[in-house]
Automatic annotation (TrEMBL):
Belongs to the D-isomer specific 2-hydroxyacid dehydrogenase family. One of its GO terms (molecular function) is hydroxypyruvate reductase (NADH) activity. This is Glycerate dehydrogenase. Keywords: NAD, Oxidoreductase. Transmembrane segments: none annotated. It comes from Inquilinus ginsengisoli. Residues 38-318 form the D-isomer specific 2-hydroxyacid dehydrogenase catalytic domain. It is an enzyme of class 1 (oxidoreductase). Its EC number is 1.1.1.29.
């Protein structure tokens, strides 16, 4: 359904984009309302009467959506749309669009920052040097912490979209062997994919690049940690919720795996006593605050694409739809706009 004349566009969490990011105004007459942040009980009153909701991480669920008859488009200022009830939107003709491909450099660079730091014991060596351990060494260096090269190591990727593929390209330059996992439980995965369990059992580094959906929640749990190589490291820059944090705690504390690098948690921010926060004393665990995407250029690209989404929708040329495309004559499948429906 098209937007009305002079629609109201409400951005619920503007402060999730840095103040330096320029948001150009949509190219049509509209009323723009911007909130720095929005608490759960403020979502409904703020979106009443709005045709377009813009949000990054504000949850938008059925109980609220059902009370917003004027809403036509939810423009998510991120790739992951797990904060929106896309199934409800799809059933009820509310379009949901996301940002794609903006993070193909920034997230993979963060992934390799974590991988290299863990494989080379960067933080433990820094701590040792700070503690004057070098001065105690009887020769020119010391070997308190393990160092493992990337060359020749196997990288197992879960998710072969824009980020999985970009990580694979960098891995190739390091001389890593890259394997892509098939879907969990699928014994005969598509060509070019290795069975999920085999990827888990044989990879030196496992990196997650799939969306959080009901079927991927808890994708990596106790059974997966039990299968991993003792030196394996797990990288999660995708979403908290993909990994069972209690099982991760057990795997790291017992020395079952070599280490983990996480940029995401469930919930965010994590409370001070959350499982991931309690792991921070470990030298082989690194937690960053969901900033893998936050390279300056990537954030501006995201902001530009965000307004393109709104303009495209208003012009009757929606793109990047993950839900609600049927009424616009577009089919949405597995989070992808895959083409025009046959008429
Ligand atoms: N930490 C951060 O700053 C950022 C995190 N992300 C996260 O990374 C995820 C991936 O981003 P992109 O590669 O750009 O998305 P994408 O949509 O290009 O690729 C996602 C891939 O996951 C695959 N997939 C879907 N369900 C799966 C399952 N059950 N098992 C295995 N694979 C499955 C899809 O087939 C697709 O190949 C996003 O969904 C988002 O949650 C994205 C950007 C920044
Ligand atoms: O783009 C995404 O999915 C992110 O998590 C960044 O907000």
């Amino acid at each position: 359904m098209p937007l009305p004349a002079e629609p109201t566009v409400v951005f619920l969490d503007r402060e999730t984009l840095a103040p330096s990011v320029r948001l150009r105004p949509p190219a049509f007459p509209h009323r723009w309302v911007e909130h720095q942040r929005t608490a759960p009980d403020e979502v409904l009153p703020r979106l009443r009467g709005a045709s377009v909701a813009v949000l990054n991480k504000v949850p938008l669920r059925e109980d609220v959506l059902a009370q917003l008859p004027d809403l036509r488009l939810v423009a998510v200022a991120a790739t992951g749309t797990d904060c929106v009830d896309t199934a409800w939107c799809d059933r009820n003709g509310v379009a949901v669009a996301n940002i794609r491909g903006y993070a193909v450099h920034t997230v993979p660079e963060h992934v390799f920052t974590l991988i290299l730091a863990l494989r080379r014991s960067l933080l433990p060596y820094r701590r040792s040097v700070e503690a004057r351990r070098w001065q105690e060494a009887r020769q020119f260096c010391f070997f308190d912490h393990p160092i493992l090269d990337l060359h020749g190591a196997r990288l197992g990727l879960v998710g072969g979209g824009s980020l999985g593929n970009a990580v694979a390209t960098i891995a190739g330059a390091f001389g890593m062997e890259v394997v892509f996992a098939g879907r969990k439980g699928d014994a005969a995965p598509a060509e070019g994919r290795m069975p999920f369990d085999e990827v888990i059992a044989t990879s030196d580094v496992i990196s997650l690049h799939c969306p959080l959906r009901p079927e991927t929640r808890g994708l990596i749990g106790a059974a997966e940690f039990a299968r991993m190589k003792p030196e394996a490291i797990l990288i999660n820059t995708a979403r908290g919720g993909l990994v069972d944090e209690a099982a991760l705690t057990e795997a790291l504390r017992s020395g079952r795996i070599g280490g983990a690098g996480f940029d995401v948690a469930m919930p965010e921010p994590p409370p001070a006593d959350a499982p991931l926060m309690r792991l921070l004393d470990l030298p082989n665990f690194i937690l960053t605050p969901h900033v893998a995407w936050a390279g300056r250029g990537a954030m501006q690209a995201l902001a530009d694409q965000l307004i393109d989404l709104v303009d495209g929708f208003q012009q009757g040329k929606p793109f990047n739809l993950v839900a609600g495309g049927r009424r616009a004559g577009l089919r949405c499948e597995a989070g992808r706009t895959i083409g025009r429906s046959p008429s």
